[in-house]
Protein: MerR family transcriptional regulator
Organism: Miniphocaeibacter halophilus
Amino acid sequence: MYKISEFSKITNLTIKTLYYYDKEKILEPFSRDENGHRLYNEDNFKQAKLIKTLRYLDFSISEMKEVVANCQSQDDLFYYLLEKKKNILDDIKKKEGLIEYIDLYLNKEINEEEREEHYCFKLVEIEEKMVLSYRYKGKYSDVGKYIDQIHKVGKDNITGNSFCLYYDYGFEDEAEIEVCIPVSKKIKTYNSIEFKVIPSVKGVKTNHIGSYESIYRAYKNIIDYCNKNNYIMKTPTREVHIKGPGKNFKGNPKKYITEIIIPIGEEDGKEI
């Protein structure tokens, strides 16, 4: 058995650190003497070596607690280290993306204050369309997945670009979205994909050229235009994918083209 002062010397962990690890239940002493002083044994020494390794490898307190509680062998440790390595690589990739984005700002390639964009607006009457659709509540990033699913059902009967109807007032973490693809005839459907007719709608249209992440700029301009002209804006707003990522490659996001249509007037729908 080792007193805490002795254990501190043989592990190179300060007494203050040992108190903290005991409190956090990362490294609890084997027992206490009659005076309540902490006593450590050889198993504690092995735990201390593991904890020092984990600390050196930048494991958080929470992570260390989980590993120490569940690591019974070198094989167990192998899997924890493998997972930690993956997390570190993911973090590096994320930070490299942030560095690249910062460089773009420094080079003034995407400085929104200096970049002047011109949007043209047009009053349109969109005809009713036969479509295959999938309506869901979830993430905007899931749109591509459902477009692929609808394509598999529609096959040679598809007649136009996919588009999305957005039923919410604004931007949401969990959005109500209907993914649609025009078709030439009624088709037998499955997997919650349905055939329907989207009614005609009158609206204001503009085109956004650029990534989906920057599409908010188009919305600002089209909403400003509608407000200036005292149009009553309605949902669902519509985004038509004129040019976007392909099935296998995303391509150049700067060249994506998205047609945005905001319904106006007294048509059915919630007022924006």
Notes: The radius of gyration is 29 Å.
